[in-house]
Give the backbone structure.
Amino acid sequence: MDDETPSTDVTLRATLDEQAAAPRGELLVHWFRTATDLLFPTAKREFSDSWALVTESIDGAREVRVRDVRAHWQHLADALRPSPFYAAAGFHEPSPGDGDDWIDDSGRIGGARAGRGGSHTELSAQLRGGERIADAAWCAHLVDFLATALDGADPAFARIDHLSFEETTDLEAALKRPQRQALRESRTLLRGYSWVTGLPTELAARLGGPTALKATGAFHAVHELHAGGLLLQATETLAAYDHPHMKAVFHALAPVLPPGTPEEAPDRPDLRVVFEDASAPRPDSGS
């Protein structure tokens, strides 16, 4: 693989808070299990070996290490269920040697406490898309995974991005919104927008619900989660999500986006945002 080619280029993220529809530890277990089964199937050689690490508390006093996620799933699930400070799992090809050789992960799953006092849990999964980002069936599989993994959650936020590796969203970086503020207000103001954007129940209601959002024409599909919230898919494939589609998503979601005009961020040169104030009147708004 070329050194300039990222080992993973597609990121799926979700944010859980204290209003999650089920205990966060159970949702964390469900996220790891669903990602293991749907995103990293053992039938594919690139995912056939794995590891996991769970850090119980912020001081790192107790860690649980697992050499093979599938073979020791119950051990990992027991460590995830108390909703620890940090958890990660990696999937890769088998080691050519005695198992101690370094091999880059082909995919990863993560979960970490965030916000003041661990008020939120950030979930993640990363994998290599490559040319598959233009494949409709593969992209639909990503959305199906996110819907399945979050079906019992009513998440505070969710997204699927390409070549976006930061925990904070591009919009948060462009508006210079502190992470704690963004998390605290995530059921009042949407943290950002992406190829797939997850809305909590409160923001979905303010936008008129699934029927109104479908009527905007900005979304290829609107997926309802059983425990509340929506997943909004902008285009059929990740590759098709270009600036005009992003701008349509921005205008559809503007009523629940944070006010302010985004600015370039020196440490994030490839921000994918619309450089307009979401709170500014638009010609078609009647204001």
Remarks:
- Strands lie at 10-16, 49-55, 63-66, 86-92, 107-114, 120-127, 157-162, 196-199, 221-224, 230-233.
- Helices lie at 24-38, 73-80, 136-149, 170-175, 179-184, 201-206, 209-215, 243-253.
